[in-house]
Fold this sequence. Notes:
The structure holds 2 protein chains of 2 kinds. Chain A contains 4 helices and 5 strands; from the N terminus they run ββββαααβα. In chain A, the strands form 2 sheets. A 3-stranded antiparallel β-sheet of chain A has the order 2-3-4, with helices on one face. Chain A has a two-stranded antiparallel sheet with strand order 1-5. By secondary structure, chain A is an alpha+beta fold. Chain A is globular, with a radius of gyration of 13 Å. Chain B is built from 13 helices and 9 strands. In chain B, strands 6-5-4-3-2-1-7-8-9 form a 9-stranded mixed β-sheet, covered by helices on one side. In chain B, strand 3, helix 4 and strand 4 form a beta-alpha-beta unit. In chain B, helix 8 packs across helix 13. Classes of the chains: A alpha+beta, B alpha/beta.
Amino acid sequence: MKSERVRPVKKLAVRVIDSKAVMLTIADSKLHRLNLTATRIWQGIEARKTSAEIVDELCAEFAVSRERAAVDVAALLDLLRERGIVALPAEEAEGEERS
Amino acid sequence: MPALLPRPRPRIEVEALADATRLCIPISLQASLTDRCNLRCVHCYRVEENRPELTTDEVTDLLAQAAAVGTFILVLTGGEVFCRCDLPAILERALDLRFATKVYTNATLIDEGAAQMLRETGVHQVHVSIYSADAAVHDSITGVSGSLAASLAAIERLRRRSIRVMLKCVIMKPNLASFASVLRLAEELGASCAFDPVVTVRNDGDRAPLALRLTPDDLVTALGSAAFAAAGRDEVVPDEFGHDRDLADSPPCSAGFNNCAVSPCGDVMPCVAFPVVAGNIRETPLAEIWERSSVFERVRATRARDIAVCESCVEMRQCARCPGSAMLEDGDVSGPSLAACLVAAARRAVTAKEDLR
Lengths: 99, 357
């Protein structure tokens, strides 16, 4: 997927509580909670950083290889996209029209 | 018996609420935007403050402050929130700040434009007060003829836009015979439904609404009904969860622990039902009031074991004692709440009846 361009969807409630993000996707009224590492990645997404920049940050912060960090970031982006937490700009516009 | 116990909350919600309580984060904030209302409900607990309401800028600043201290669930209530013409601007700001926003309303002022605005601003849920499917009963409670028809028309507008609606119904003497019809109405409308069997005193201690409160026998009837058992609960709102009710050192209520309220003129309180003023956001930042006010310090110093009589009560685990009700109705914030005692006794009676079957 074009993970470089994903952004948090507009209708999403988020707070970081105890270093772990809690989220509510308004579209399906589902709650989600991220673990510590996933929350760090999420904060990068929120700050509009690219996947490569997020990977760089993870490598600087945690004892993890660049390859492993890249795999983890990509997997989380896929999961967040699947759950409607992030989307490509065109996908979000389409979703709004459908609903 | 299981029907009388609260349904389990999702694990994520329980964990987040527990974390908020432990870290003393106001994860839920109820902002009463106005005392103005176009209905005259007989049981209303609100008392008009006769001070200027927060301006649009003051409300949006409050939201920014709330987001900064960790508030996740924002409840906008009144009065009637649609009496404020700046509600769209407030909701747009709430969306930008990524709150899970709920709107409590009688819905009578929600026209097509307002319904679309709620859709576009990503409101998570709209709670509508409905007291009966019988217009004569509902309208007699709201004091305005045609109010049920107006509310139902608005709910249809919300439903067409896939906005989640919960019908909320206080059960009292005037609607005891027909409250169950609200559940049927909810099912027809694709809404959820929650009942509250307790009428409270007004926030100034005026006991007039208590004349509408169910008698102990009525309470057993209501709590033992199929409609009460089948109704839902108010989701994603902290109440008794986040605490372990088995422990005497658990907080007695979420008010002041992970929940706070702000009045139309900016007074900060532990809860809309616990109107002790801890400070005013026109004078002091929300974070400072929440973290340092003596009111919140006192509230947080209280544990279940400190509540006289309650500590040894066998009903404690199921009790939904409200400290505000104990203070306003019974005169002792550290004592039992008669309203909660009545409900607990009714639950026990219903359980005993079911055990005999």
